[in-house]
Amino acid sequence: xxxxxxxxxxRGFFYLPLYVExxxxxxxxxxxxxxxxxxxxxxxxxxxxxxxDREDVVTRAKETGLKYIINVGCDLSSSRKVMAxxxxxxxxxxxxxxxxxxxxxxxEGVFRELKELSxxxxxxxxxxxxxxxxxxxxxxxxxxxxxxSQLDLGKELDLPVIIHDREAHGDITEVLKSKxxxxxxxxxxxxxxxxEMAKECMNLGYYISFAGPIxxxxxxxxxxxxxxxxxxxxxxxxxxxxxxxxxxxxKRNEPMNVRLVVEKIAEIKGLPYQAVAEKTLENxxxxxxxx
Length: 291
Ligand SMILES: [Zn+2]
Description:
By secondary structure, the protein is of the alpha/beta class.
C-alpha cells in the first residue's frame, strides 16, 4: 500500500518501491524465522489462571510457531485434568505425577491410578517429580519416598521423568546416580544447579531445561551454565503460568513465551534462533517420543 502510493505520488521517490521491496524481503525473512517450530516442554495449562482464556492461550501458542506443549501434572487431580486437556487440544501432551509439595497423603491407590492414567497414548512422561527443600511443604523424608517410588514407576512404564529440583541439588544428583535408577531417561526442569551438576546429569543421559529465569538480568550464573551445556542436551520451557521471561516479568506466563527463552539461549550461544528452535524441538521429540 505504502509502496504503490509513494511510487505514484512522487517520481522523486522512484527508488522507494525497491527500498520497500528489500525491507519486505527482510520482513519475509523474519516471518520465515517465525515459522520455525518450537516446543514448550513444561506448562501448567490446567492452572486456574487459564480458566478464562485457555483456548486463546493454546491458539496464540500455535500461531507463534509452537508445535507441541507438554502439560505437566502436580498431583492426582491435576494429572486427571492434564489428561482431559490433552484430549481437547491436539498439540497438547500430558505428563502425570506427584510434585514434592504434594507428597503428603500419597498412598498405593494414588500410584495405581497414575499407572492406569499412563496407559493413555498422550501421556509422554512422569512428572513433575522430585525434591523441594526451599518450601519444604512436605517432610523431606516423605518427599524422597514419593520421588523414589515414581522413579520406579517411570522405569517400570518406560516413561521419561520430568524432575523438579529446588535447593536439593546434592540429593537429586545422588539419587539419579544410584545404580537402581540408571537407564532412566528424563529432564531436569527449570534447571538451577551448577555446571558440574549439569555435567553429572548429562553423563547419565538427562536433558537440561531452561525457563524464564535465564532471561532475568540477575541470572548471570545460569546464563553461564547455559553457555557451557551443549545444545544436544538443551530443552526450553515456560513453566506457565509462572516464571514469566523478560520483558514480561511480573505478568502471567503462557506457552507462546517459550520463544523468548529460545531467543535467549540463541543469544547466549551466539547461534541463530532457528538453529536453537530446531534442535530443542528435535531433543524434546527424542526424549518424549513425539512424532
Ligand atoms: Zn512446573
